[in-house]
Amino acid sequence: MRPDGKPEGLRQSMSWLHTWCGLLLGWLLYAVFFTGTLSYFLDEINDWMRPELHRSIPGPQTAALAMAAMQKIAPDATTWTINLPGERQTAVEASWRKPGAAAGRAGTQRVHLDAGTGEVIEPRETRGGSFLYRFHFELHAMPRIWGRWIVGIATMFMFVAIITGVITHKKIFKEFFTFRPRKGQRSWLDAHNATAVLALPFHVVITFSGLLLFMSMLMPWGVKAVYDGDMQRYFAESRGRAAGGAGEREGAGRAGRAQAAEPAALASIAPMMEIAQAHWPERGVGSIVVQRPGTPQASIELREQGARSVVRGAAGERLLFDGVTGEPRNAPEARVPSTAQAVSGAMMGIHLGRFADPGLRWLLFLSGVVGTVMAGSGLVLWVVKRLPERRKLGRTPHGHRLVEVLNIGAIAGLSVATAAYFWANRLLPVDVAQRADVEIRCFFIVWGLCLAHGLSRTHRRAWLEQLWLAAVAFAALPLLNAATGGIALPAAMLQGQWSVAGFDLVALAFAVLHGFAAWKLGASAGLAAAPRPAGGAGVRIPRPVAQSAEKQA
């Protein structure tokens, strides 16, 4: 029975639940889907937003140049990690740890190196794609735990909306092949159904795996009971590591002492790279890890590019060499995860998509775009469904107007704000204080202005103006890139810098998508109800000449 006391069947109950689960947190879910989808190309966004890296062109001597650079930059480090350029990054990313450094990221120092010369590159300060990535699961400008709780609850609503949506539509797969254009509410419902069914497995897996990522926070009782409240021990064991990182710190200390007592030169990296290339002719070497550089105990580990398993944290094959003589060593056997670790790691690996090759990554991205369209079309459908009711009333209830404005701000406004974030990255002075934070403030200021714009303009006019603005802003990004120090799109394609070229091409695709939406909206009468300011409990709208046959929700 509904809250208003009227009896209803299972599907009617599920429809009510589906509608309100989707609406109450729909705007947040749209933002999570949108930013999470962009995060599949996190590395590419990071590269584009650091145009200083675009001049880095990898060559056959890149590994040797990077090793030589690290000997100058961090000769007394205990560990070097050198990530070589690949399909998703154009420069060398190197990091190191000094003796006695704090465990984890706090004790790690990083630098970017030119892949063609080995010189240090100092890119502009920016959060890049990491801001969008972290926003999609912990929001911003609030304690992280609060953001994760909010997104976790929204994810539960999303899962309920997916399940109830499947139950509601008894002909859901038949309706997948049905699209009736220019039919008002029916067209929006067809589009919502089609996008929901098209990527239904993706929607279910990405939502369920997202809940698993929050599992220890949303349902901590099992971990507290088994591990007696020691969450760090749980996380370490679930990832197959020793708790506390004691071994890492102790090893670092021993390495530092040995390095000071017995210096020794490292062997040339070139023969090792040739052996590795023969082992992995398709993937090649992705990274080099040097333990105890400059000591007789030095070892060099070459890691294959990419991962051979979907399990989170799984890597490709490894080759181990003596760091002084260059002779091959027997690499330690890879850890075999338990069944529980493998299942958990696989679900998380699927959600993060870090295992994916370019083709699969694009498929995940497109599935995310479909999911974003599904969430947005559901929000718009709520408004379209209620147009007949508004026409009967002759006014727009304040609640309906609130949903209209929030829809504009959350959907079109988020696109404009994201484009503005990329524009701010290029137009702000490089030496401005706290530059990364200023870029993010630009994002939220523009998003807030879009919300205010939706409030001050008529519904249809606000949609049109913001969609066209987003289309123009995205379309101009490749030109902005070339004009502000980045490599131009044609040159990036010719030189194989697909991390940069791919960003520009996706920006153009987004421009076409937003422009097409604006053009269709301009040619449609579906959202043509133009409210007028009026006193009393709502906004007056003109009654239609011919009453629509659309059914009310």
TrEMBL record:
It comes from the Bacteria. Pfam families: PepSY_TM. Keywords: Membrane, Transmembrane, Transmembrane helix. The chain crosses the membrane at residues 20-42, 146-167, 188-214, 362-384, 405-424, 436-455, 467-492, 498-519. The keyword Magnesium does not apply. This is PepSY domain-containing protein.
